[in-house]
């Protein structure tokens, strides 16, 4: 949705800006002094407006009122108008070409601000076409309901059926019904992909996928190598786990394992683990105050968040947004969380996750220029959030937090570890499919995409394509159309969470039992993250930050060590 909004906003304001920019001025000087002046005027516009945008967005998510959403959108439009300005972009280009900006922090700001302007320099007609197509696709996804045996089913109904039914005919019908949306949107998506590619080429990139990665400072080849590395590390382990899953599901559905088809795996895309281990964590949270637990935990690791909690909106209300997020309101310490806590393990995970984001924001370095005072990359803040979120299902953490006894922790240790491992392995194989499919699709949108999709699903997820299937099943995944070329970041966040985990357990805490650490009551954990991750912000490209913090560039090996076993 963010993408669509940004394009819409850019489209509306580019017109005004283009008209205003017709009268061009002669080339301006490009010294560091000149750039500092440019920065001053940029910050004077962007800083106060960004804060208003964040506050309005937070307010709208609480109230759900139309007028609040309208105000939030209007402000976002004003903000985007700034980076769509072609005159300012021409100046940024000149600063880059002039080669006189040498001071590291100035140079870094120039790179980042340049990139944020670059992606908005698309002619208005093209932007409008992109927005129209995206909106059209989004509406089709929003209004689509699968028809199963004459009954209308929502996505939740489908997932519920896939998880709970053992009726082979119903499972097949539900799965196939859910894929019908692919047919409705495939042609539109293909057009959108080609238009995105055309826009990217105009801006000097090989295709849209290349552009999205490069603007996020991700070297496409390096990211692909990382996915190859992870594939190599997880292939055998996943294959063994898949046999366990198949054995369980075959027994459950009373079928020989060879007859298992994608609809037997309890999820439309097999992106989440089937429930094959018996452990019910909700039991331990049902009469607990999860907010107090979070407060105590973060205080204990030296990242106090009582002020964040006080500003947050944590409980359900009519009209309120039902998911959760953390918002960095002003990059000056005002971070807040919005969610709707109920006492169960899902929300324990979510609270630890969101407050992890908040801590990253709150403990930034206020000496840094505003532009650099943000997470090194979207996936680096996800990594911190995932690292803490995972503790909600860690018996060691629950025991250290006095939520369960040591005996109980020992009793559930094995099924908890198995469940988390299964969840991570299943997700990582699915993320391989998404990453490779998107890359392939933007490289060649005219290939047989239906076939390409199933080649990847069979190779990485080890699922069997239903006999003779030739449908645009790839188009049924909403991210392909509306959140393009972003999915791989979810997996990068998981890899980095594991890399941070091992670094802290081994190097910061010097723990003997590395696998079972909860970091409870260890302020050196917070000190490490503040100094090595939070304060550096965007001062360095993300991989340099990771290398300085952990001694290694981002690698898949700790994720594999945590969830595959072995070295
Ligand atoms: Zn998150």
Query: What small molecules does the structure contain?
Result: zinc ion
Q: What is the topology, as strand order, of the major beta sheet? A: 1-2
Proportion of helical residues: 55-70%
* Span of the ends, CA to CA: 41 Å
Name the overall outline: globular
What is the residue-mean pLDDT, rounded to a whole number?
Answer: 92
Q: What sequence of helices (H) and strands (E) makes up the elements?
A: HHHHHHEEHHHHHHHEEHHHHHHHHHH
**SS-based class:** mainly alpha
Could you give a short account of the major beta sheet?
Answer: 2 strands, antiparallel
Poorly predicted ranges: 1-5, 15-24
Using only C-alpha atoms, the radius of gyration works out to: 24 Å
Tally of separate helices: 23
Strand content: under 5%
Number of strands: 4
Summarize the structure in words.
- By secondary structure, this protein is mainly α.
- The protein is built from 23 helices and four strands.
- The chain has helices at 2-20, 32-63, 66-83, 86-98, 104-118, 124-143, 155-164, 168-202, 208-215, 220-253, 282-285, 290-300, 306-311, 345-362, 378-389, 395-400, 406-443, 449-461, 478-482, 488-508, 523-534, 542-550, 557-563, and strands at 146-148, 151-153, 325-328, 335-338.
- It has a two-stranded antiparallel ribbon.
- Helix 17 (406-443) packs antiparallel against helix 18 (449-461) and helix 20 crosses helix 23 (557-563).
- The structure holds zinc ion.
- Zinc ion binds at residues 353, 357, 382, 385.
């Amino acid at each position: 949705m963010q993408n669509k909004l940004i394009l819409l906003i850019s489209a509306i304001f580019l017109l005004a800006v283009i008209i205003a920019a017709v009268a061009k001025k002669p080339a301006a000087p490009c010294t560091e002094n000149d750039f500092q002046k440019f920065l001053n005027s940029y910050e004077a516009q962007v800083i106060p407006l960004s804060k208003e945008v964040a506050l309005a967005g937070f307010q709208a998510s609480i109230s759900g009122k139309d007028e609040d959403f309208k105000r939030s959108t209007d402000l976002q439009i004003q903000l985007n108008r700034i980076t769509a300005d072609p005159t300012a972009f021409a100046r940024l280009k000149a600063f880059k070409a002039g080669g006189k900006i040498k001071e590291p922090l100035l140079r870094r700001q120039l790179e980042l601000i340049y990139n944020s302007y670059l992606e908005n320099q698309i002619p208005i007609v093209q932007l409008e076409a992109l927005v129209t197509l995206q909106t059209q696709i989004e509406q089709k996804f929003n209004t689509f309901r699968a028809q199963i045996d004459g009954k209308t089913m929502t996505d939740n109904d489908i997932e519920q059926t896939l998880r709970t039914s053992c009726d082979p005919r119903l499972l097949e019908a539900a799965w196939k019904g859910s894929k019908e949306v692919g047919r409705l949107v495939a042609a539109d998506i293909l057009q959108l992909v080609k238009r995105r590619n055309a826009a990217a080429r105009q801006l000097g990139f090989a295709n849209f996928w290349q552009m999205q990665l490069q603007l996020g400072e991700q070297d496409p080849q390096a990211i692909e190598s990382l996915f190859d590395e992870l594939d190599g590390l997880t292939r055998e382990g996943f294959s063994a786990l898949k046999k366990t899953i198949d054995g369980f599901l075959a027994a459950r559905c009373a079928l020989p394992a060879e007859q298992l088809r994608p609809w037997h795996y309890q999820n439309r895309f097999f992106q989440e683990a089937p429930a094959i281990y018996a452990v019910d964590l909700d039991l331990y949270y049902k009469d607990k105050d999860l907010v107090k637990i979070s407060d105590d935990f973060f205080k204990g690791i030296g990242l106090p968040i009582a002020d964040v909690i006080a500003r947050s909106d944590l409980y359900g209300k009519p009209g309120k947004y039902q998911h959760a997020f953390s918002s960095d309101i002003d990059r000056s310490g005002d971070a807040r969380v919005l969610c709707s806590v109920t006492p169960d393990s899902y929300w324990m995970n979510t609270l630890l996750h969101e407050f992890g984001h908040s801590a990253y924001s709150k403990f930034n370095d206020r000496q840094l220029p505003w532009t650099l005072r943000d997470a090194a990359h979207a996936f680096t803040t996800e990594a911190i959030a995932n690292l803490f979120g995972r503790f909600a299902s860690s018996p060691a953490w629950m025991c250290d937090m006095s939520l369960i006894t040591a005996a109980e922790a020992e009793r559930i240790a094995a099924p908890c570890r198995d469940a988390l491992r299964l969840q991570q392995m299943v997700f990582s194989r699915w993320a391989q499919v998404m990453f490779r499919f998107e890359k392939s699709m933007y490289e060649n949108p005219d290939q047989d995409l239906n076939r390409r999709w199933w080649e990847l699903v069979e190779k990485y997820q080890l699922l069997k394509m239903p006999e003779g299937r030739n449908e645009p099943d790839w188009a049924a995944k909403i991210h392909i159309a509306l959140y393009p070329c972003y999915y791989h970041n979810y997996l990068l966040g998981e890899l980095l969470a594991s890399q941070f985990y091992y670094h802290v357990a081994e190097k910061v805490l010097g723990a003997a039992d590395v696998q079972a650490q909860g970091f409870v009551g260890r302020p050196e954990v917070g000190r490490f993250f503040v100094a090595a991750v939070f304060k550096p912000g965007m001062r360095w490209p993300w991989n340099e930050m990771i290398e300085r913090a952990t001694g290694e560039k981002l690698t898949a090996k700790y994720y594999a060590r945590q969830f595959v076993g072995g070295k």
